[in-house]
Amino acid sequence: MTHSQATAELMTQRHMVGPVTLAVGMLLISMVSYQIGASLAKHLFPQVGAEGATAYRLVLSAVMLLLWRRPWRRSGTRRDWRALWGYGLSMGAMNLVFYMSLRTIPLGIAVALEFTGPLVLAVFGSRRLLDFVWIALVVVGLALLLPLQEQAQALDPVGVMYALAAGVGWALYIVLGQKAGAAYGADAVTLGTSIGALLVIPFGVVHAGSAMLSPALLPYALGVAVLSSALPYSLEMIALTRLPARTFSTLLSLEPAIAAVTGVMFLQERLTLLQWLAIAAIIVAAAGTARSAHKPPLTEPLVN
């Protein structure tokens, strides 16, 4: 690579810092919003169950997004229907099984188990030694966060399986979300949420029935829809279209830490000292990944 080419590449990387920083900021806000919404949704479980809470969340957020975005005005020639439907169905399934896991296991642990999906993507997408250092730190953090030794018998195996299934859905959501976002832009969130709502509506109706129509639950349901879907999914789509899948997936390692803190603040869940150390390890790994996202590896040596 010549000196002029190297200079041009460095200038390009500098121009990328702004969009990357914006994407990381959007992702952080979305994660905080998502976990606050999840803690609020758990309060709906006694009235409408996990199935009803999921239906509330996706249906109301789909309605809000449709009224705001009105995607039918931009019908165009974008026809990557497989990616869009895959994105929407993975979103709906991921939300449903994740809420099912919250019935029996703590929020922080459920998210830690769910994070196995993005973690696998991060591993397969890594190319540099430093990437694996951050991923190893995440693994250590997750191992400390999960009370596998002290409370292994207390963890409901069905809840654990639901959380792991949510991890599969999360990985598909990332991969297909990037493709849908490339084809449909911000409208991908609106259309994908609507597809996800179609998937979960029957589960909510069968489980909760007429309880879904209770006016007293509407404020909680609207809060869940905004905080858990409409806002975070819109912000995540911005990040998805600006960050590599590996970087996006590793940054999501903050999610279990945020979930654990949210559980303490809003659900009276308690953490051990080791679990707090795990949160610190995960935060360091996420910060390191965010920093390395500004420095893509050079494929050619710089020579004059």
SSE diagram, text form:
Elements: H1 3-42, H2 45-69, H3 81-102, H4 107-114, H5 116-125, H6 129-145, H7 157-184, H8 187-208, H9 218-240, H10 245-251, H11 254-266, H12 273-292
Helix pairs in contact: 1-9, 1-11, 2-3, 2-8, 2-9, 3-7, 3-8, 4-7, 4-11, 5-7, 5-10, 6-12, 8-9, 11-12
Strand composition percent: under 5%
- Helix content bin: over 70%
User: What's the alpha carbon Rg, rounded to whole Å?
Assistant: 20 Å
Report the mean per-residue pLDDT as an integer: 78
Give the strand tally: 0
Tell me the count of domains.
1
Low-confidence stretches: 2-17, 296-304
Major sheet size, sense and barrel closure:
none
Number of helices: 12
Oligomerization category of the chains in this entry: single chain
SSE class: mainly alpha
* Tertiary shape: globular
Order of helices and strands: HHHHHHHHHHHH
Query: Alpha-carbon distance between the termini?
Result: 8 Å
Descriptive notes:
Helices cover 77% and strands 0% of the residues. It is mainly α and 304 residues long. The longest helix is centred in the first third of the chain and has 40 residues, at 3-42. The chain is globular and about 50 Å long. 49% of the residues are buried.
Short description:
With 304 residues, the chain is mostly helical. Helix content is 77%, strand content 0%. Helix 4 (107-114) crosses helix 7 (157-184).
